[in-house]
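ESCALATION

Customer reports they have been waiting on this structure for their group meeting. Please prioritize. Original submission:
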Amino acid sequence: MVTRRPTFTEIVDWVEGRLPSERAEQVAAEVAADDASADAAAWMTRFLSDARLLPLVAPPAALSARLRGLLGDPAHLPPEVRWSAAHLLYDTREPITGTRSAEAALDHAHLAFETEHGRFVVEVHRAMPGHVDLNGLLLLDHGAGVADVTLLEDGVVRRLARTTPDGRFELTEVPDSIDELRIVVRDTRIAAALDLTRG
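Update from on-call: job pushed to the front of the queue and completed.
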């Protein structure tokens, strides 16, 4: 029987032991047989291990209260609100040593970002010419919580999403002209430059 290739989020669930036993066995077999899936599993294992080492420091209560007073629509925040810049930590489209094919890199990529508030990963799949599907996972210092995710193009809001409590989000058929991703969760605001046209 042919099984479908595991998604990035399924590989994360498999690494952390959350998949049902039958699907876990299928993912394990795919990871053992497919270089790209094995690379993703090995990288995510290292990533999660590193993320657990990040210090969790709660801000002072007075600062938290002040920041909560500034909360508003994540797509239209006043300019004086400070955004934390996310820096690209890892991009599987970069030339790396390994056996991933050029075609696989074009169809499927992982982008990992680091910020002062923690890390997050965006999985990019080519959906159709000029469009991609995005799956994200937030690993921020505040822990689990629902976040608002906004995609912008030249400063104009194009798409909005809300994460699940464990920090996952999905956006389908996103124009690859999108150039910025913003995350708002509790007192945290993060902005990341995106390049979805590579490949």
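Sent to customer with the following note: Residues 96-105 have pLDDT under 50 and may be disordered.
Escalation resolved.
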